[in-house]
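Hi all, a correction to my earlier message: I attached the wrong file for Trafficking protein particle complex subunit 8. Here's the right sequence:
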Amino acid sequence: MAQCVQSVQEFLQDSFVPMVAVLCSKEADRVSRKNKLSFPELLRPFCRLLSEGHIRDPNNQLQTVKNLRICVNAVNTNPVSSPAVLSPAQYRQLGEVVSSCQPLEGAAATTFKTGDYNLNLSVTTPWFEAYRESFLQSMPASEHEFLNHYLACLLVVSSTEAVPVEQFLKLSQEQHRIQHSGEYTHPRWFIPNTLKYYVLLHDVSEGDEQRAETVYEDMKQRYGPQGCYLLKINSRAVSAEEDEQIPDPWSQYLHKNNLRYQVSSECTHLCVSEGDSESSCLNSHPLQLEADSSSTSLNEAEMKQVKPDADGVAPVAVGHGSCLTLNDHDRIRQFVQEFTFRGLLPHIEKNIRQLNDQLVSRKGLSRSLFTATKKWFGGGKAPEKSMSEPKSACGLLYPPEAPELQIRKMADLCFLVQHYELAYSCYHTAKKDFLSDQALLYAAGALEMAAVSAFLQGGGARPYPAHYMDTAIQKYRDDCRNMVLAERCALLSAEILKNQGKYSEAATLLIKMTSEDSDLRSALLLEQAAHCFINMRSPMVRKFAFHMILAGHRFSKAGQRKHALRCYSQAMQVYKDRGWSLAEDHINFTIGRQSFTLGQPESAVTAFRQILNDDSRQTATQQAAFLREYLYVHKVKSLPQLPLPCILSAATRVYFGHEPRLAQGEKQAATHVSLDQEYDPELSAMWSRLEEQVVAAANRGVVPIGFQPTQCCLNSQTDNLRQPLAVLEEPIIVEVTFRNPLKVSLALSELSLLWRFSSHLSSSSLREPASEQVTGEVISNEETLLTPVRRSTKSEDPYTVDLVVRGRQDLNIQGPRLNQTKEDKMSVRHGTDRRLDPIITPPMPLMEVFFLHFPSALLCGEIRKAYVEFCNVSAVALCGLRVASTHPHFFTFGSNNPTPSTPTSPASAEHSSAYKTFAATVQPGSVVSEVEVCAQDFSQLSGVIEIPIDGGTLHPGQSVQLPLWLRGPDHEGVHEINFLFYYESTEKGLKVSHRVLRHTVFICASRSLSVQASACRSAAPPHRSSDSMSCDGTLVFVDVENVNTSEGGVREFHIVQVSSSSQRWRLHKYINPDKDKDCKLSSREKAKLCFRATPCTPLPASMDTVEKYTFADLNLGNEQIISSSTPCRDFFFRCCRGLELQQGDKAFVVEDSKQLILEGQLHVALQTIGKEATSLMPKEEAQEMVLLKFKSELPPPVALPPPELSQLIKTNLHYPETFSHGFLQDSLCMVPVTLSLSNCCSAPIEVLIDLRHRSISSESQEFHSLFSWVGQSQYKLLLRPHEVLSLALRACFFRAGVYNLNTARVFAKPAQLSSMSESNQQAASPALIIINST
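and the right structure:
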């Protein structure tokens, strides 16, 4: 606990003092009011005695009374609230007391160092002491104790009364009526024979002193010199002007009372008039018990004095005690001392003796009470239940004459006069009686005071019984439901424990007393518990901070904002920068809110900014509260630096140029580069290689010095050391990545980008864009022109904050960290990043590319005709149009060589054929035509192709559409094909030499036909070489298989033509033994074709240098395809050389209930006689799935079938590894099992499954076999080639154990071999399942 002004002994003594009541006549009250004080208030500063008093105990031992204080209050007969709870007015008074006591502004705090913590803490807590004092004074008197009961009554009469003695008689009768008539329950009196002390109040300034002396002498004759006193006051007039400054000792006492009585406006006083024996009751505040009720009359008088007069001017308030001199102060102090020493202490001593004698005489014993035992007081009581109390042990009510109450009364008297040893004995004795009678409220009070008495004895006579206090608190709080008495007990015990250095026990006690019924009490106790943790021998700093946060929270709920801010600020010293992010968020949020409420906006902004700068782990609701408060604070500021949303500067992307347009109807725009694409370093390197390739082709095979690949979109992974180039009048898109660290949506609107442009001709200047909706962000001082055309906002959710704040954030991009030199590695250095510093160049041409009828799926070798449209959308002409691709054999733009002008066939026109087809004029199977083609006509054999445009230039606004033939890849699957279009400006010498346009397509290729070809000799003369195809009778065999599995709705393939292309050989004739000219292939069907090949006609010697190829076409139908024209010959020159066979085919496809005809060509290159060539890659030739086989150590039995017949079917069981079942509830356990069958060959298989078989092998006998298959026991199935089929089975188990499920027998045979018996398939490894019993 924090340090207190009083010592613990002084605090305990002042908590329980003798109570003295006051009854004043009306005239006496008027005399006191001249000083703006009632008579009890007049005495209050002088109620502490400066000298020692003495009494004698029942054993006639002298006891010294030191530093005694008495409490003087006016009699108040108004009923007070229940002692178990505080009324709302009492809570309000305590809150005002605490709020009025604040730490001084700028007061120096004590530096506290422990470990690595350096804290600035306040040593004292005066607000807690003020609360404690007000709480103890406001406690009403209770029936179970007498400490707050009145011991004496001062009867005050003025000397100006006509007959003062009669007034004394009336006041005495009034006091007797209040105490004994039974009409009033309050105030409570200590003993029936209350001490009455008669005071004659004499006003020196206006009274007759001689008459007062005469009346006083008469009083001494009537009441004795020990029972009366003449008090002279008001030695000076109010208007007297004296230079002497009289101190005001009443202000420190009355200030606290004024706070209490602001909630009450009605005041009544108990005054006795000459003509009326009945007196009214003195009013008191509902929170205040009789101790403070007399001050209300003063407050009322003060309120009347400060009211404005008729002129509307409020009179100047006069200080307290304005009619009193220093001599009057001494007289009042002397009066209190005389009353205490000559009246009150002897009265208490006499009553202690009487009580001791009464208690001893009941059993006829002569020993004093403190040597007696409990059996002396075993009889003579008749406890009864009070009907008004709840029917529980705490409601037990003793009659006034009960010995237990007499013992308690004697103990209280001894405690009030500081005879703690005798008080402890009495409390201890009473405690036993109360506990034996189950009078829990009485027992708790006795335990409480016994513990306090034991502590105040001092000198180590008796250790402090802390368990007494714990028991008392437990009985007050849990049994009696009296939180007021429990709180008082806790306050006393905590001070004692702190004095003994038991801070841990004190903190535990204070924390236990916190509850939801009083936020103010809980806040104060939690704060004191926090101070206990920090004052321990080994300070518990984190516990201190945690409980300070709890205290601040309860202060905030109680409306004590300044105290809440102070608690949170002190706790922040512990949690700051320690990794306690959630705790820091809570503290900063509360500090910000409280600071703003208290008129400290700068502190509020600082606290809220610390919450929102870093990643938060708070819930969405809490973060919404944080953000709402922060935005509200910032609402009055203009363009503040907002911390939200966070800008990821490194993730900023800059895009130069127009974004690619979307598809327009049937037109498909080139994909190029967009902000929606993720950056891929490998893909970027591929585009750089393509660009370098096409640049080299455009510059006669040499890459220019200083060549830099085009970068349309700059990000953190690109090379940003150079300033990028931007074209005049083309947009620059800046994509800024915002990160919202909160779980609350941030609705961003009216986003603007500030920019600055500087030219070479003038100094830097800031310009605003023409559009009001587009402004910008200052990103550099270089040659920059940034115009944002794109912004994004996030949608709202239930936690969207509806406050709108305008702010700005700076965009600073940091380059990559340098790690080259030793200095770079030893320090943190970053390179430059120039992505936001573009250089503006003169206008350049801008081309857009569109594709028409471009397919997304093709059969392998399929030929499809599409169109490409090139548009110049700029004001500058372009030329040098080229294209480079990763798959140059995939497409062709054709050639300018003329083709024979033969009429096209009707079928070709009907089906929009990609070929030039003509009606066949010869018998099928014979050579239709032979054409020689010069290879120089197809010189574009590299990856770069020049695009043929009329004139070679595309003028501004002009567009041209060119045909594009596509051939499906030879390999099935999804193929990514990249195009890079290259073009230049007609103006030379520009900083930007060329521009490129990227396009990426994905083609899904499906299997069509597989072609295998081989050449062999016929009968040849002996002198001919055997390794060449130079014989007149060379045969070419072509095996064609339909490998398409009805993909894409393909029904069948028709082989319409076979062509050859070679410098030395040509196909001569088609040999068909079956005389079946129509070659049709359905799915998985094969055809074998035989051709005769003959040498080509030798060329003249003069033409040997010219490389020419002979194209020979053999049609198998009624149409002829000119293979020497586009696109056949184009794709031929992209394949390997030799005797190349081109097979033309047509696929009949059903799509949307319509039959379509697809055309294509396949290539097979024959190099050597006797060596087979294929159109498929070697990895695709092996189509059979090879099963994984395990080698057995033992050789297989001879009786088993051949391996190829025992591995037709692959089986696999799918089931849970473990299964739990309650066999006690259900004796049968059903487990679902799935049997998977896979056909491993390319033929249909008949399968027979028998579940009735049980394996009797030694391997399976190791596991339980007591299970059955439930349901159908045999299955007969037909599996198509490579088909996978699943069967749902159920296994039934009768008990727990481990089982082998692989007991089914599987037999299979090829479906075509009906006469062959089924072969037993190879069994898989054991399939074990564990059945658990639950």
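Sorry for the mix-up. DSSP finds 27 helices and 56 strands in the chain.
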